[in-house]
Amino acid sequence: MLSREKVSSEDSSSSLVTHTLSNNPMCTCGSPASLRTSNTPRNPGRSFFGCSKYNSQGLPHCNFFKWADSDSCHEREKELVKLKIEILRKEEELHLAQAEAQQIVKEVRRREEEVQRREEDVRRREEDVRRREEEVRSWMVEVRKVLEEVRKIDGEIVKSDLGVQRQCTNIKLWCIICILLYLYFSLSQ
């Protein structure tokens, strides 16, 4: 763009010069940019900043170019700065969100591990309960066997008791008969 513009060192107005010189930008090569005036048919008499080394003793230049009267450039620069600040803020928010997400992932993993430990504990307890239920069932079988034996023995005792009661009754009857016979024979003599 600079090569297409014809440059002269004439100033168009003193207020523009004063304004632009107070806001004189730095060239990308590090030197202060020079205020110049365009003589092209497209932009006649329009002031711009260009590299101060442009066309001086055949030295290369950095192609720096900026319209001096363009507030839109300043606005664009301000807008770019705002956008850069917004991007930096968003990047910071992203980093914070990523850190928070990592914390959440760590917490989820910790809780998953806790759930796995508890599930394993529940499995162990269920297995222990099953084992104890089996022990209780085997004890119940043993108790039933013992109760059957007790019932058989009790039945035998009852039978034996009945037999003893019959014998006692028979003995009593024999005793009574003996006493009666004794009395009969002793009185009859």
Mean pLDDT value: 81
Helix share, percent: 55-70%
| Count of distinct structural domains | 2
Which band does the percent of strand residues land in?
Answer: 5-15%
> Given the C-alpha coordinates, what overall shape results?
rod-shaped
Q: Helix count? A: 2
Strand order of the largest sheet: 1-2-3-4
Low-confidence stretches: 1-21
Number of strands: 4
Round the Cα radius of gyration to an integer and report it.
Answer: 60 Å
Class of secondary structure makeup = alpha+beta
Order of helices and strands: EHEEEH
InterPro entries: Znf_GRF (IPR010666)
Protein name: GRF-type domain-containing protein
Organism: Carya illinoinensis
Domain GRF-type: 27-71
Describe the fold and architecture:
- This protein is of the alpha+beta class and 189 residues long.
- It has a four-stranded antiparallel beta sheet.
- It has two domains: 1-69, no CATH class; 70-189.
- It contains two helices and four strands.
- Strand 2 (34-39) and strand 3 (44-50) form a beta hairpin.
- Residues 1-21 have low confidence and may be disordered.
- The longest helix is centred in the last third of the chain and has 118 residues, at 71-188.
- It starts with 6 loop residues before the first strand and ends with a helix.
Record keyword descriptors for this entry.
189 residues; alpha+beta; 2 domains; four-stranded antiparallel sheet; 2 helices; 67% helix; rod-shaped; disordered N terminus
Summarize the helices and strands and which ones pair or pack.
Layout: E1 7-8, H1 14-22, E2 34-39, E3 44-50, E4 65-67, H2 71-188
Antiparallel strand pairs: 1-2, 2-3, 3-4
Domain GRF-type: 27-71
GO molecular function, one term: zinc ion binding
Protein name: GRF-type domain-containing protein
